[in-house]
Amino acid sequence: MADKETILNVDVSNETYDSLIPQLFHRIEEQQHSFIVAVNPEKIMKAEQNADLRELINAADYQIPDGIGVLLASRLQGGRITDRITGVDLMMAIIREASRQQKRIFLYGAKPGVAEEAKAQLQKDDPNVHVAGVMHGYTDDNDAVIEAINQSQADIVFVAKGSPAQEQWINDNKSRLHASVFQGVGGSFDVIAGHTKRAPAWTRKLGLEWLYRLIVEPWRWKRQIVLPRFLLHVVRKRQKKES
Questions:
Q1: Percent of the residues in the chain that have a pLDDT greater than 70, as a whole number
Q2: Which of 123-127, 219-223, 234-238 has the largest mean confidence?
Q3: If you count Cβ atoms within 10 Å of the first and of the last residue's Cβ in the chain, which end, N or C, has fewer?
Q4: Is the keyword Transferase assigned to this protein (predicted)?
């Protein structure tokens, strides 16, 4: 099981892409469920105040550190998390390995038509990718969703319904599904389909994606102010614990 540490009562997995991918595909062979949730400072701050959200996040098998702030918080409290794992990049890493091992994937969520476009782009980039099925996220018949995923014989299900709705859906339904790997991926289908542009690679590499977003989308400043508040909260909690 994943090596984890706790930041403000929220579990965070200490994994890298290279350590996580083999674990996930080994668990597929063992027919074990792997529930993946991405955590960032904003989500951790909300979870500290919301017991239900905190319980949902901590119920996952892997809580990937999606945000430079999580790495900084780990360092501030003497932890060992050093690698950022973004949701969309992990999704693409899983898809590449699924192509290599001929595992089947299912895309569930987003607006009507987006999952289909994402499927087309994935198969254009790699004809060996086996997208066994797609379904948009505006279907009211949950039993129909479960049936479609099970009939597809998918090994991996990506759910794009926004957080925490996508994580709640996974937690509520994974016991009814034959798939093994479940990841909530937010707006990743839109990114793959070309509807949403990612920050330049150099900003992501330096952990400055938040700054790029603030420059191109200045109305997001209220969300970005969470980062310094989050780090200050981590420092104060550690000081209180040590006093």
A1: 88
A2: 123-127
A3: C
A4: yes
| DSSP character at residue 191 | H
| Strand 104-109, strand 156-160: pairing | parallel
Q: How far apart are the first and last CA of the chain?
A: 33
Q: How many residues does the chain have?
A: 243
- Give the whole-angstrom CA distance, residue 143 versus residue 147: 6
3-state secondary structure of 161: coil
Does pLDDT of 173 surpass 60?
yes
* Ordered alpha helix ranges (H), 86-164: 87-101, 114-125, 142-152
Q: Which two tokens mark 179?
A: 């798939």
Q: How far is CA 33 from the centre of its chain?
A: 15
pTM, rounded to two decimals: 0.91
DSSP states of 15-52 as a string? --HHHHHHHHHHHHHTT--EEEEEE-HHHHHHHHH-HH
**What is the DSSP-derived secondary structure letter of residue 60?**
S
Sorted by where each begins, the domain ranges of the chain are 4-193, 201-242
